[in-house]
Amino acid sequence: MKRLLFLAFLLLTPALLLLAQTPTTLSGTVRDASGQPLPGANVFLKTTFDGATTDSVGRFRFETPAAGSYMLQTSLLGFLTTEKPVALNGAPVRLALTLKSTPQALGSVIITAGAFEASDEHRSAALNTRDIQTTAGALADVAAAFNTLPGTTRVGEDGMLFVRGGAASETKVYLDGLLVQNPYNATVAAVPARGRFSPSLFKGTVFSTGGYSAQYGQALSGVLLLNSTDLAPETQTGLSVSSLFVGASQVKRWERTSMDASVEYANLTPYQRLLPQNVTWFQSPRGLTAALGLQHRTGQAGMLKVYGRWSQQQFRIGQPSPEPAGHQTVGLRNGNGYLNTTFRSPLRRGWSLQTGLGFSHDNQHLAPIPCALLPKSRPW
């Protein structure tokens, strides 16, 4: 009997010691070389089943009963896998891990017709800034570039983003998660409308023709998600001059803050004088746009963004009319103001805060103009 008790004691001793061992808590963040958080990265201890996946702000946390020296491995698609030795002795271990992108690897660019996955966790962009700027016939317009993809339909000459013949109001546009009420410039019949935002503002654009989450339940046909850039890479000054527009911009970068300001003036008179038009322009389209942006990083993963924009445009055009004269002249004056403020920050226990405020003001004056009030102009 004593031998049996002694044998049972020898067999149970390792298990009792394992249960008595204090588990070690490992936590920290995973970022890329530029300091941006990496969600979805795998962090685990080699030769064990203990590990975790980073959340939306790049944080991870897990416990392990293992003790001694182990190798912590971190991996993510598109980045080099790294290993780091850690000592597990029951004391909490806090780590700040950095992954380098895979050399000579193409960025994740996915162009898809039909439906995206219902999950909005994908960071891949349907079209990046360069794709939009180099799409033939799009003229660096976001909506025009997406109108070249399968699943969209051109309806008349409106130039707006339609999906399978639906109305433009059925395709919602979101900037940093906030609904944009007036994403297109004002226009009249038979004159294509352009989007209000420059593609250079965004680090990625995702176009979903169905299958989006309940967050965008107001959209009936599609959702266009615009994600603005975080901190500007460097301080720079820009000046653009052409026969159609002139613009100036200034970007200032600090350690945790960046600010950018721009102003543009466009006038299509030289273009319409050079190329014959199928319509009568009494005043060519012209407009003035001013924009100001501020990005500030709060803490390790928090980000505050403020973007404001004001634009005004006007033109006068001759159009067919059901009146006996068969012709009418329409004048359009439009002023649009837009303000977008967003804030995101990680909280405790894996929670995160993301909030924002969007404001849009659109003043549109559209009216027929008597011919006696029009300046003398030769129709094309």
Task: Describe the fold and architecture.
Helices cover 9% and strands 43% of the residues. The protein is built from 4 helices and 18 strands. The strands form 4 sheets. The protein has a 7-stranded antiparallel β-sheet. The chain is mostly beta strands. The protein is elongated, with a radius of gyration of 29 Å. Mean pLDDT is 77; it is low at 15-19, 104-125 and 376-380. A hairpin with a 6-residue loop joins strand 16 and strand 17.
Count the E strands.
18
Distance between the termini: 113 Å
Content-based structural category: mainly beta
Mean pLDDT: 77
Q: Which segments are poorly predicted (pLDDT under 50) over 5 or more consecutive residues?
A: 15-19, 104-125, 376-380
Tertiary shape? elongated
What order do the strands of the largest sheet run in, or round the barrel if closed?
Answer: 12-13-14-15-16-17-18
Helix count?
4
Amount of beta strand: 35-45%
**Main beta sheet, described?**
7 strands, antiparallel
Name the helicity range: under 10%
H/E topology pattern = HEEEEEEEHHEEEEEEEHEEEE
User: What Rg is obtained from the alpha carbons, in whole angstroms?
Assistant: 29 Å
